[in-house]
Specification:
By secondary structure, this protein is of the alpha/beta class. Helix content is 40%, strand content 15%. The longest helix has 23 residues.
Length: 485
Amino acid sequence: MTTLLAHRYRPGEMHRFAAAGAEFVYMPQAGAIFALDDAITRVLAQMNDGPVAHDDLVTALVGQGMGTPDAEGLLRELRQVRVIEAENVVARAPVVDTPPADFPLQALVLNVTNQCNLACTYCYEFGADKISTQTGKTKYMTPETARAAVDFLFSSAGSREAVHITFFGGETLMNFRLLKDAVAYADAQGALLGKRVTYSLTTNATLLTDPIIDFLADNAVGVTVSIDGPEEMQDARRVYKSGKGSYAVIAPRLKALIARHKTRAIAARVTLSAGVTDVVGIYHHLKHEIGFHEIGFAPVTTTDDGHDFGLNGDGMSAVLAGFHALSEEWLQFALRGQMHGFSNVSETLSELVVGTNKSHPCGAGLGLLGVSPSGDLSPCHRFTDADEHVMGHIDSGIDQAKRSDFLTRGHVGAKYECTSCWARPLCAGGCHHEAFVRYGDTGHANLHYCDWIRQWTDRVLDIYGTLAVRNPEFLERFADRKGLS
């Protein structure tokens, strides 16, 4: 008997779930999902009371009607995908690898101004959680800085055929003239270099005008609008410095934007905070009364400082209940072969469909960097103008030592609490910025968010399984569309 056949097997690391009468496993080490047929279920059942020898598993399968070659082949396949593993296999320590110094850049977030005409109470940049240090710094990016940033992006993109520029603020449209100049320059340079450039921006919509809308549509600029819902919810926290609400100003401008901008989907980004938790009501208002194509939600969790906008346990429970109700709507649309605009489902399901297995929570410091109005580089837009997090300058390039330190600490394998979590391939420990605000370390796991992530991932796994059974063609089309609704 060979050493292999002497092995005793135990179940590998997996998260089992059921949907539409079928059984599935999600494999964290691979980010993969497998349907459990009767044969696999029988193999796993044999190990309910502990590890089982190879020969005993083969004998049991043969006794249940399977031929010996098929039984051996099944066990071999299950070992390869790590549904089962040898009892004497010792879990390897996570490999914390960082990309090479010449890892090609894919996107820049240009913070074209650090000024804003609103004073939203929960704003991470200007609110109680701000980490930026703006005293004495440039308030508006100049055309020269924007062009230098574009040149830096192209020179750092390596062989990438396409790059992306996001315009951000403050309120982005307060420096619209710069935005127009940057798009014209990037298009011209991209044509010379044979690279395609795409664009997006985030705005509070208060400064939208017909000429701006025409420009955004003509240049296929993706638009995400920060808005919190109907008037009473929008005006609770998204206010001018005078305290006046912003809903009455933006509502007609948004309808004009959506009516005339047809080259890209128009998305809403909702910040859920204390008193603003009616997920279903907000969605339907923004989708059906305003006309957004996609709506995504981001909860503000309670902070140690006890800010009145943070969601406590009851608030988070209400939000999760709303997410579940809205996700059921999403599923019913999908079963009919229709897309739904609740992007929180679309984004998570897209990652499950393609087998995402993240080393880092996002592209910050990896394929993406933020650029401050003065040209300083940071891991992403949330760290703009924060001296502690400067990672170089567009004129001198990336400080590779700082970048390496940031990415090493942010790697999911470096976060002890994540190593045993089945949801880590999608989460990778959570937002670097929130980790710094909460724990003083960009590489700290967002432990306050863990239960939420697991519950939500479980819900989307259920949607995946239901579609796999009842409308698998939709999953295939959904993967082709990369989750866009």
